[in-house]
Records
---
Amino acid sequence: MKKIIALVMALVIVALCGVACAEAAAPKIGITIYQFADNFMTLYREELVRYLTEDCGIPSENITIVDGKNDQAEQTNQIDGFIADNVDVMILNLVQSSSAASVIQKADAAGIPVVFINREPSAEDMALNGNFCYVGADARQSGTFQGQIIAETENKGDWNGNGVVDYVMIMGDPENVDAQYRTQFSIKALEDAGLKVNKLFEQRGDWDQTKGQELAATALSQFGNDIDVIFCNNDAMALGAYQAIVDAGRTVGQDIYLVGVDALDECQQMVNDGTMTGTVLNDHVGQSHTAADAALKAAKGETLEKYYWVDYVKVTK
Ligand code: GAL
């Protein structure tokens, strides 16, 4: 009997230790997203947490994910909090990419690796010392795809037949390279295809649907039928622009073109229905998984590469 009791106790001890050891082995991860209200980053963060917990087996209590509320001061406090809590790794979607340098230095001093996502720090900051990386997609590619989508239409983006692609550009937050490159490379792709271009209007809509609608409405009332194409740096703003196009009595695919980036579900549906000319898949699944894998490696003490790239994909009917 004594032997059986001893055996049972030994088994209980081993089982308890097993649980404790597994918990001790799971890293603590601090994540901050520039703004929870952002459509695309909502898909991204939900998949990131799902993948970490369900596929990688990280207990959800080990993951802290907070909303930067598009406020760099607030987000800096969050990052300082992660460092004070001694997390094992941070996954950071900065409000302002220009804050990367100070974050890299603080994290390095605390010995905490960092995975930057979605907002690419400058090449200069990426050259600093520390165990950190950037996981993202090359925004030049998404811009190029947008331009190609228009260059490949039957009338080559020229509805009014004046031999020029007259366009409106609705930009994201210009502090972000995604906005800068998409704006630049969409037009470069038109020019590379041998087309003449004419910029009628260019303003920042900060990735936001309501602002996209307001700006498109302003442009449509100012330039009317002169507009051949509305380029939006993302789908949320394209959804807004679509509403303004309808309100102005114009019809996508019949007298105007509309392109975005992200391939949100509703925009894929619109491309299928012909109410949007095209979009570009911003692969939040690939990016979130790559970011999580890098973070888990770094938490185990492995050295990160500087960049992990995920491809964009052109989406047309
Ligand atoms: C872009 C995305 C936008 C917005 C932005 C936030 O990659 O296309 O919709 O989410 O990131 O930084």
---
Amino acid sequence: MTKTAMISGITGQDGGYLAKFLLEKGYKVIGLYRRGATDTFEKLKEHGILDQIEMKDFDLLEFSNIARLLKNYQPDEFYNLAAQSFVAASWSEPVYTAQADGMGVLYILEAIREFSPKTRFYQTSTSEMFGKIQEPVQSETTPFYPRSPYGVAKLMAHWMVTNYRESFNVFACSGILFNHESPMRGKEFVTRKITAHFAEMVTGKTDKPVELGNLNAKRDWGFAGDYVEGMWLMLQQEKSDTYVLATKETHSIREFVEEAGRTAGFDIEWRGEGVDEIGVDKKTGKTVVKVNPQFYRPAEVDILLGNPEKAEKTIGWHRKVNFAGLAKMMMEADIERAKKGIL
Ligand code: NDP
Ligand code: GDP
């Protein structure tokens, strides 16, 4: 029998990769998107899958709509990827972030409990919940210490998932996902901001350097295409649970700049310190990176490093792409787009 999967946040980075993965497995995919005045389906078009998805209106803040969708479709699986996902924006929109990323998840859990109790639910939790890290390597048992309204809101949702599993026997999984990127990553996130800007530089569209904030922060960066497989694997198990998905490697923003720069043809040397630091391409003497304190955050997550051992051993998940491969993939994709004028 054909399985039905509902994906909220279908227009985002992970939504496209997950929809493609599930369509290839023969699922009927119902994509939930926010109605807006402009076309937000670019990523699904680029994946070439828009016409294979049944698209329905959805907003995390509208309980009646969520309840109706679950009542009408009774999907086998519901993947909640929708969120105000940009940490930096969560300080300027803390109330909305808490409502969408915290309460929105509760609405879905309530609708499942009430109207579609057989639906298996996946929630995208985040390594931002570890924030000011309490252990050098973070796993499912590491205490949380979120550092942004985003992290706090996601932590509420994470505990709601655990609570609905334990209280009402809802099959609800939480994936604590460390940063994952791809050529489909939003340009406000640091990796894609760097690759998109470097692509404009190499194709002669700009000669200005990319302006970044804290170059010393370190992240455990994986490839989104690998992580969506982990989401699906979680829902195929006998019991619902919480799993960390990570690469077990951590790299600084500076290292990502160097790695992406290599593919773009830059040989970057760092000069100066703090707000005066610049990255210079040794070959041309051109400044390609500059620090702008505007991109510093009110509270920073200095370093994240995840341990995916439980997911590897229990559900058989293994990431395939490493840090260097990810930076190269993103840089090459953006140079291609810049050449075609579609960046
Ligand atoms: P994106 O920002 O690319 O996508 C977010 C999606 O959520 C978009 O489709 C967006 O729609 C939708 N959305 C936002 N607000 C609402 C709302 N109020 N109602 C309905 N839909 C809404 O995120 P990613 O694909 O990168 O991430 C997917 C999920 O994983 C998110 O929940 C994120 O917080 C979480 N996560 C991501 C990590 C990462 O490194 N990528 C790490 C850990 C967790 P629209 O197109 O209209 O804006
Ligand atoms: P996050 O880990 O979900 O917040 O993902 P981001 O890609 O937005 O940020 C990752 C890290 O890069 C954070 O520590 C930021 O402070 C740091 N960073 C440095 N410069 C920038 C910048 O210009 N934009 C963004 N988004 N982050 C930056």
